[in-house]
Each structure stands twice: as structure tokens, then as C-alpha cells.
Amino acid sequence: MRILIAEDDVANRRFLMKLLEKYGDITTVEDGMAAVDTFVGAINRGTPYDLVCLDIMMPRIDGYKALEALRDAERKFKITNKAKVIMISALDEVGLSS
Length: 98
Hints:
There is one protein chain. By secondary structure, the chain is α/β, with parallel strands linked by helices. It contains 3 helices and 4 strands, in the order E-H-E-H-E-H-E. The chain has a 4-stranded parallel sheet with strand order 2-1-3-4, with helices on both faces. Strand 1 (2-6), helix 1 and strand 2 form a beta-alpha-beta unit.
């Protein structure tokens, strides 16, 4: 399995790498734009990613916009076996009422 991790925090990126390394080959990037560029480059080379972990809050473009661009690329290249995507965040939601 090919895995792309897009996470701007070094500690979180290392944690995800350690957690997922036994499942496949991992590529890491530090921002949303690099995630999109790397994802599209892999499609162009015929080696698309199977799993993408996207941080929600990243520099350049956030995880939501990056996901939209990834899905647009899959449509453009007529990818039928779309990548699974996990959106991640380290935000603390203390104070929200239930």
C-alpha cells in the first residue's frame, strides 16, 4: 500500500509514520500544496496513493481544500479506485457543550 501523510507538525508526522509504517510505503509532506503536487505526481507516474492522511490545518492550503483538489485530480485522470482519506486534527474542542 502507498501512503501519503500531509502534516505540518513534526511530532505528529513522526507518530503517523510510526503507526502506519507496517502497512506500506510512506511519503510525507509538510503542507497542503505539497500534498496535492505529490498526489498528482504519483498519478502521473502510474503509482497512485491508496491512503492519504491529511491534517485539517496546514500552511498554504488546508486539508479540506487539499482533499477537494485530490478528488478533482482523481476525476480528471478517471481514477476509479479512489484513495481512502483520513482527515486528522490536533485541535482541542474543550468548551463545546453537548
